[in-house]
Fold each of these.
Amino acid sequence: MLRKANKPLSVPKGLTVEIVNDAIQISNGKNTLSKPIHTDVSISFSADDSTLMITASEFANPKTVKAQLGTICSHVSNMITGLTTGFKRELIIYGTGYKGQISGKKLNLKLGFSHDVEMLVPEEVVVEMPNQLEIILTSFDKEALGSFTDKVLRRRKLNRYSGKGIRDKHVPFVAKEVRKS
């Protein structure tokens, strides 16, 4: 990730960048993302050519500065991508009697338990269900999308033998062989 930090990041038109009190804020008008900046890193924004330059600060710790440069650069890059194009995850519910539905800001899942699983959807995440077995999650915040996706996937972990449960659509499923005695 340090190779990414050596090059300036270009900011597309329509995004505004503010660096205030050791934090960076990027906004596209309706959505705003902010991230604190580590003391090892300094960020400078050039409004003339719309570029962000991420460099080591003058008081940087030589042991941790490389890791922090790559991390902050990756976070800022994800913020820019999220506010311009957004992020998307597709999940599949697989199993007999397993299904889901959306009611308001809640996601109701029937996953073979004696009760229905209700999950409150965060404000940053938009949930769509084209049918009862597919869940499409979209968001401008990669961190919020990843944490909510993880919560949904953990409600019914994937059975490695039969494939029942909730899984990511783009990750191939390979069933384990049943032990033969």
Note: Residues 13 and 50 are 8 Å apart (CA to CA).
Amino acid sequence: MDKKERLLGLTALKGLFIWIIVLHNTFSLDPLLEHIPGMAFIRLFGGSLGNSMFFILSGFLMSWGYRNRIRSGQITFGVFLQRRLKKLYPMYALSNGASLAVSLWQYGVSAINLKRIAFTALLLGGVIGQPGPYNHPSWFVPCLMVCYALFYAGTFWTKSDTAYRVFLL
């Protein structure tokens, strides 16, 4: 098995964890569905363990693909962050917009909180002491953006493979 096939396998495993997380968030909260075969697995692995595995695999795969380009200066911090935002922000905005629409439908105009809308739009929702995003499960996107910045900085400043491995630990 060559390196590309192994990476495709890890990418597929990451996709599996995404579906487990989605199923966990969708079905595990409904007591009527607790007797469905496999629900115990989804409850166990779809929550924090599923998220942790997804982040670990994502970080490794991203590290594998970007490491040499960051070190050689082929990709700048701005371009790196822009690519990450293009990938994540549309779904983040859509899910928070849909959650706001549901809140408006349920609670009327009282659901509108301009500070919360602004903090959510700027990826600051859920920062300590600030209102969280309208779609609560999207709290991780601002955290992920901070992790991306740290990843870029660590990769940029660790020129040797040994220092890079220590940084990843």
Note: The chain is about 70% helix and 0% strand.
